[in-house]
Amino acid sequence: MKKGSIGLLVRWLMSAAALVAMQPAHAQLGLPTQNLQVGCGWMLAFDPTRTGLGNTAFPEINARYWIAVVSDTAPAGSRLRIQGQYPDARYSAFHVHDGNLFVFEAISDNELVPDPGSANRNLDRTRRDDQVPVGGSYTAYVRINAAVPAVRETNTLYRPKPGALDAKVKKRTALAYRTYLPVGGNEGGAPLPTLTLETPSGPKSLPNAADAAVCASIQKQFHTDGSALPVSLTPPVIPPAMPVFVKFDDTVLAAAGLGVGYNPHNGFLALKSDRDYADFLLVRGKLPSYTTQDQPQPTPLVRYWSLCQYGAASTRVYACIADQQLKLDAEGYYNIVISRDWMRPVLLPAQYDWLPWGTEKQGAVTIRELLAHPSFAKSIEKSSASQTAADRGEYMPLATYCSQAVLAAAAGTPGAGTGDAFAACRASRQGLLSSLLPLPVLGTLPPIPPLL
Fold first, then answer.
1. 31, 25 Cβ separation under 8 angstroms
2. Dihedral angle, C-alpha 245, 250, 256, 262, nearest 10 °
3. What's the longest Cα–Cα distance across the chain?
4. pLDDT digits (tens, 9 = 90+) for 211-239
């Protein structure tokens, strides 16, 4: 870690720890505490088409998220067997968590070796063979309370042995299953994987009938609209008047023991904003090539890309736009306008995309890069938190506030492109701020990241 970032990260962690502690109960599986004999089968934790189902902890609208739970009393030598089919989805993966949903490990679809006689269309992190049909089968495992061996077993994840001081619920094992942009229903046209707990005394299926009451209590925790916190603890406390995207450093998250539902396959950029600063928030950047793009590069740079608008206090998602939905200008840049309007403002030219702000005064804008290819040297994953803009180059998104009048005039200038309009908005904002008093230093703190 670079020396200049230590103080900033310490301040961030203090705020982040407070936020995690105040998250709604369903964001952590800390309740109920009664005994779980074997475990619970799949419980759908987020689906934006269902009112009140898990809209908290910064979910992605295009993702679906299930959770299964294994009891803390699983005997030594137990493992969870996962038998499934590759879905028709942009991405699918399994993530192993403790009972409070803090992540240990993850395995993505391209890493799952198919069963004999089946095939996996995912060639690597971003490439796939569309000639291979979906629906091939695989078998994976989670070793319960086991150390990672020097040579890993095929298709196997490891849930470390709990600490001596860990609470009962934290000692549970939670397995998350995600699909992004599924086709043919949330499951991507394939049945949810079958779960079997293999113990020294024999196999036990999940869900287990003896655990029905506990599982129902856990399931109930996911059914909430997510009420706003008393105050917005999402850093920075005062959003900067010139918005800047910062990278969330997952190594800091892991070291602090934070990260409810965190997906380690994602690289995150985020900024916190305030709708009272101006009519519009503009975001402009170069879109990396992605899997299934109409005219893909030989090696797409990322599996998936998206930008989402959240409420900073409630952590609920209001809108997302995925890579395949973006309008790109001649240079391959996207131009997204976020405003408090409930419908797209009529003054916006056709080449702009638009997202609603939502009901909260302070928002959090997040960019995800999912499974960046190792050859993508300018990915979020490979950039440093202290000099993200320099590391990312043309792929670093820019943001600025802008008034309706300035954007309308700039966009309507003959011969002006979207880049010219963005520059005009930024110049007008800088001119306004130069006449104001210095802003609080808290405006430089990075925002807390999305988790799902």
1. yes
2. 100
3. 77
4. 999 999 888 888 765 544 444 556 667 88
* Residues 255, 206: Cα–Cα separation, whole Å: 32
Token pair of 195 as six digits: 């779960």
Contact between 156 and 46 (Cβ < 8 Å): no
d(CA 398, CA 389): 9
| 243: CB partners within 8 A, 6+ apart | 271, 272, 273, 281, 365, 399, 400, 401
| pTM of the entire predicted model | 0.88
Per the listing, tokens 């939502």 go with 358
Residues 41/215, Cβ–Cβ less than 8 Å: yes
Confidence of residue 253 (pLDDT cuts 50, 70, 90): low
Angstrom distance (rounded) from CA 94 to CA 28: 18
For 57-94, the pLDDT digits (tens) are 889 999 999 999 999 999 999 999 999 999 999 999 99
Q: Is the bond into 374 cis (omega within 30 degrees of 0)?
A: no
Residue where the block lists tokens 């569309």: 130
Q: Looking at the domain 246-444, which fold is it?
A: Jelly Rolls (2.60.120)
Query: Beta strand 63-70 with 173-180: parallel, antiparallel or unpaired?
Result: antiparallel
Cα–Cα distances in angstroms (integers) from residue 95 to residues 108, 134, 343, 368, 428, in the given order: 9, 21, 37, 17, 45
Backbone angles phi, psi at 129, to 5 degrees: -100, 105
Express each pLDDT in 154-207 by its tens digit: 999 999 999 999 999 999 999 999 999 999 999 999 999 999 999 999 999 999
> To which residue do tokens 């202290």 refer?
386
The helix or strand, by DSSP H or E, that contains position 218, with its residue range, turns out to be helix 212-221
φ, ψ dihedrals at 334, nearest 5°: -95, 155
Residue-range domain boundaries for the chain? 25-221, 246-444
**Cβ distance 318 to 309 under 8 Å?**
yes
- Residue 160's identity, in one-letter code, is P
As a whole number of angstroms, the distance between CA 178 and CA 166 comes to 27
Q: Which of 43-57, 155-169, 297-311, 370-384 has the lowest mean pLDDT?
A: 43-57
